[in-house]
Amino acid sequence: CRLPFCLGICAPVRSVDSHLRIAAFSTAAIQPARSVGPSSLACTSAALQARRRSQRAHRGSHELAKKHRLGEGNHRGSHELAKSTGSARASAMRPSEAQSTAFKALPPARGNPRQPSLVLFYAYREPAWSAAEHSRALKTFIKLCEAHDLKGRGRCAPEGVNCTLTGGQQQIRAFCAALREWDSQLFGPVDFKITDGLQKKEAFKRLTIRKTEELVGYGLGQSQPQLATSKATHLDAVEYHKALEDPDAIVVDVRNQYETEIGRMRPPANGAKFLDPKVRNSHEIPRWLNAPETRERLAGKRVLMYCTGGIRCERASALLSELSSSCAGGACPAQATQDAVASAGPKEIVMVRGGVERYLRTFPDGGYWAGANYLFDRRFEQRPLKRQAPLGSCALCGVPCDLYRGRVVCAVSTCKVPVLVCQPCRNRVSPEEVASKAKCRLCRDNFAGSKRVEKPEIAVKAAPVAEKTRPPAPRLFVGNLPFTVEREEVLSTLDIDGRLTWLVDRETSLFYGSCVIECGVDAATKVVSRAKLYPTKLRGRKLRLGFGPAAPVDGAEGVRPPCARPASVFTYLRIPR
């Protein structure tokens, strides 16, 4: 530039237009004998534009650095920040986050002490609590929660506890210390995963601890595989990340399919193979593991299991280990061949310690994780810093979507799992139409899953109990049914097929929640025997199952007759013993 003072580099400017005005003034007033040609003005304009780009880049890098400090930067921003500063990637691996807190001091509080914190943990107990011990443990646990002003939800079963709680930073840590003081043998090896700095809307409003028969609804009841004898091992997040690169390994996601739809492990191309069980709920996992095709896929392989926090992997890996041991001993199902028996069972069973939750803490950019991690708390999802396109899609319009909002469930009556529906569809379509049309991905693909596969039989050492039951009969009695249940729903829940007769009141001919299924002696015996080990529930109601009468009964067949809750005393149909 030939101007007597620099306008392109040194002088602070606001726009190119102002530079041109200054350039024209200086050309006319200061150097009247020398004309400024178009090339000089073009040079000045180019210099000014370069200056503006430099200032924008400076402001952008400052904003990216601020976002990174707040944990909000995306992959592009992190890359630009690292490039501009010459440092390593902003979302580098954090090995300290992979370490478990078992038998260790809890991590110090971080962030604003006024913001709530969250703790996620589970504890398995072997041997299980007795009925009296279970009740006392539940009361003690609730008292500790209330004493530290914690809110959240959890499950307390004879086999242990599983909870997600929110509260103050110090209250959360004091509560964990109180648990260790209460029962050091049970809570000493627990990995307390604490997250500080939650938003107020992400904190729970009330405390709900349910008394249940299982921590994970695998439907195994008392026939739970023992963790003490399991051959499965734990890997921390760094070791698990390295194991995903093993081409001889198979990655198994033991979560539900609606969780896998929005996020899952995606090993490298020349690494482990991903195997999706495609289950609607945890009840289908034991059946899937017991399926002959699953055994064949896993035989001789290194199995890498994972779930959200680790609790589902504990039982699933122990079950797979026990099935493999029984198969190696010659107790495989009848469908298995001799070759399959000889090579049955995985070479190794491992799981990531702390689940996906701790893996994403260790690898903030996601590592080999793709999508969002579905959470069962008010955070809804856990996302890596590396932004990605949604893996899921809207059940109505098909656009990419990965937000489960509005409590939309599958329209199929026997499914009812959460369904993805985008915000425009929720605004445009009426709730009634959404409830009748939205289907999960498995139902849209007409995928039946592992419902018809036999559940594995786990040996249980229990004292024989004398019970007054009818002798085996070809008919099955089912009681305590929901008043709006349908025939297909009953048969699907019991995994049988046969002629169903609705039992009705003699005077009013109203259905009152019982039926008789003519299914054969073998099928009836299998259902009754299974009911002794663990409860069979339908829509949350525990069914009463037993052998029906030897002779046919009078009732209604086909479509369920009208029903009404018995407001008065009915003269119920009496079935002679």
UniProtKB/TrEMBL annotation:
Q: Where is the composition biased (Basic and acidic residues)?
A: 60-82
InterPro entries given in the database record: Rhodanese-like_dom, Rhodanese-like_dom_sf, Rhodanese_C, TrhO, TRHO_N
Ranges where the Rhodanese domain occurs: 245-368
> Could you tell me which residues belong to the region Disordered?
52-110
**Which PANTHER family did the record assign?**
RHODANESE DOMAIN-CONTAINING PROTEIN, THIOSULFATE SULFURTRANSFERASE/RHODANESE-LIKE DOMAIN-CONTAINING PROTEIN 2
Query: Which protein is depicted?
Result: Rhodanese domain-containing protein
The species this protein belongs to is Pelagomonas calceolata
